Amino acid sequence: MAGETSRPAADATTDPELACPISPVVDIVFSRWTSPILWSLHAFGRQRFVELERRIEKITPKVLTQRLRQLERDGLVVRTYHPEVPPRVEYEISELGRTLSPLFAQIAEWAAANLDHVERARRHYDEAGAPRG
User: Fold this and answer.
1) How, if at all, do strands 88-93 and 47-48 pair?
2) What are the residue boundaries of the HTH hxlR-type domain, all occurrences included (predicted)?
C-alpha cells in the first residue's frame, strides 16, 4: 500500500541474537536458577523435588517448579512420575543436558582461576568511585 514502510530485515547490527550467536544458549542455560538446578542434577544424579529444594536453599518452591518445567520443555531435564501412594516424582538431567558438562567444567575452571581477579577489580573500582559522565 502507498505510504507504508517496510521494516528492514534483521541482521547482526539490529538483532542481538544474530550479533552474538551464543545469546540463545545463555538465555536457556544461565538464566536465574537454571545453572544450580542443572549442576545439582549432574553432580548428585536423580533427585526428588524436596532434595533439589534442600540443595538449592534460596529458591522458592514456585520458582523451582517453574524452572524445572522450563528445563523439561527445553529437553535438558527428564521428569519421571511414579504412580505410587503417595505419588513420587523424580528429576534427572537428560542426555542433552549432559552435553553441557564440558561447558560447566570450563566455567568452573575459569571461576577457580579468575574470580579472585574479578573481586580485586571490583574493590579497585569501588574504591576509586564510579566514573562520572
Assistant:
1) antiparallel
2) 20-119
Which residues share a beta bridge with 10? none
Question: Does 8 fall in a domain?
Answer: no
| pLDDT tens by residue, 62-121 | 999 999 999 999 999 999 999 999 999 999 999 999 999 998 899 999 999 999 999 999
Query: Could you count the other beta carbons within 10 Å of the beta carbon of residue 16?
Result: 10
Asked whether the beta carbons of 96 and 110 are under 8 A apart, the reply is: no
Peptide bond into 8 cis (omega under 30): no
| 48 assigned to some structural domain | yes
pTM of the model: 0.76
DSSP character string of 83-99: --SS-EEEEEE-HHHHT
Concatenate the DSSP letters of all residues of 39-83 into one string. HHHHHH-SEEHHHHHHHSTT--HHHHHHHHHHHHHTTSEEEEEE-
In a domain, 44, yes or no: yes
Q: Which of 89, 93, 97 is nearest to 50 (CA)?
A: 89
